[in-house]
Amino acid sequence: MKTETTIQGLSASLNPARAARKIIGFVPTMGNLHEGHLNLVREARKLCDVVVVSIFVNPIQFGPNEDFDNYPRTLEQDQHLLAEVGCDIVFAPTVEQMYGNKPRLTNISVGGITNDLCGEQRPGHFDGVAVVVTKLFNIVQPNFAFFGQKDYQQLAVIRQFVRDLNIPLEVIGVPITRAEDGLALSSRNGYLSAENRAIAPTIYQSLKTAEAELHAGTQLADVLANIKATLTAAGFVVDYVEVRTPELQKIEEFDQDVVLFIAAKLGATRLIDNMQVKYTAV
Amino acid sequence: MKTETTIQGLSASLNPARAARKIIGFVPTMGNLHEGHLNLVREARKLCDVVVVSIFVNPIQFGPNEDFDNYPRTLEQDQHLLAEVGCDIVFAPTVEQMYGNKPRLTNISVGGITNDLCGEQRPGHFDGVAVVVTKLFNIVQPNFAFFGQKDYQQLAVIRQFVRDLNIPLEVIGVPITRAEDGLALSSRNGYLSAENRAIAPTIYQSLKTAEAELHAGTQLADVLANIKATLTAAGFVVDYVEVRTPELQKIEEFDQDVVLFIAAKLGATRLIDNMQVKYTAV
């Protein structure tokens, strides 16, 4: 496994693969890798000849009061983990390598689906994601790109701009990886105190309960209210509990497949999770 | 020469060239081709193995009161001209082929350099250009893309987002092609009455005069005022007469290379032109 820190170095490393028309798979990450990321790499390994993983903590997707400076950077440990799951090339550029010295004037925004859910609390966040992911796509030029369904809204945003801009690759969404107690894996879980870590799986439990309620015919509004009550009682400060179509459109009745979304704070740590619920007539 | 009207057809036509690692040159146009466009194709022909020209009147770069519906569409004539100058593939998609049935949610905006000059009178115009050019770049995936310097601001916008988004191609700016009397060639010249066509070269003459004045040490503000007075006296309604650095930054003194910009209406027809003026100490 190679590590490249410059765009030029990465191009040189990828050129033989491109010339041989090999299938290139790409997993963009911000590092601090856990089993969720490694499952993305394993998925890429299955489908592709060459697997590239980027590790880049992208400043422009963090808000002014968010944790950019303190976001965990664990490159050496990440490299060991990636070598074990068969990554071929790690791309770990500096901020200067990615954004240069001259000011960036270009922005990419995805209307409609970025204004609510996580977008409401994090203005500009998805623009920052769209810009960096587009840059990385243009640098790596993969055939397939792999993203976790845990960041469901992010995945939907990426699918949307890939389609709207005719970016020549296929986006693959990979199911959420969970701890044994159901907590969705996230780099931010490391911020939780032991006590809060024990409470955190309530999010997943409340989603499972909601799924059962929906299938039993409970009204959608009541199901959402129950999640909120459960989380609040457990000590969370709820950001949102929402339901959407798989394409993130609002929905009033459980009359098709839906996705349930939760964002909630436990102490200073904001956790998100979601669950796709299949429609079944009661 | 082939003509392709679908993205899939174009990909099929380009695949052998891509597999053979041939150099692909791309000239995006809105059709109604004149010598200016043909010079772009000749430039591409010199540098590239395969030359693709797109003909697509892009609805999203026209304002509500602009001439989208009446913009001249002359595909057959364009095909004849392109065959003569050695174009290999014409890509002439429908609006539906480019934008599909589902709503487009993604926008690309280039801050700073799109808000004045032509951007002030045409809000959203350069966003529409950025989106369609990005789409075409992703569809054609050329090594080189050719644009005329006549649309200098457009060229600067394209260079900017190509750099900001790491789009893997080189942008080539090609000098303005002029009629014998100096009028910059443009599809919109065809809208001019015979009388106005005779007046139109005043734009170029005023730029040449301005260049001489600058080199003779006339103050920048006076030079711009002289252009305005000349055009107004000739019967133009001036949109703007401006001076910028080559990167479109505002400038107060003639102390480096500059570009002079004119946009002016003659009857209902809006004409633009520009001239790069080398700095020379007086």
Automatic annotation (TrEMBL), chains A, B:
Pathway involvement of the protein, from the record: Cofactor biosynthesis; (R)-pantothenate biosynthesis; (R)-pantothenate from (R)-pantoate and beta-alanine: step 1/1
Keywords: ATP-binding, Cytoplasm, Ligase, Nucleotide-binding, Pantothenate biosynthesis
Protein residues bound to ATP: 30-37, 148-151, 185-188
Gene3D superfamilies in the record: HUPs (3.40.50.620), Pantoate-beta-alanine ligase, C-terminal domain (3.30.1300.10)
Binding positions for beta-alanine per the UniProt entry: Q61
Keyword GTP-binding: no
Note: The reaction proceeds by a bi uni uni bi ping pong mechanism.
Family classification: Belongs to the pantothenate synthetase family.
Name of the protein this chain belongs to: Pantothenate synthetase
Species for this entry: Acinetobacter amyesii
Lineage, broadest ranks: Bacteria, Pseudomonadati, Pseudomonadota, Gammaproteobacteria, Moraxellales
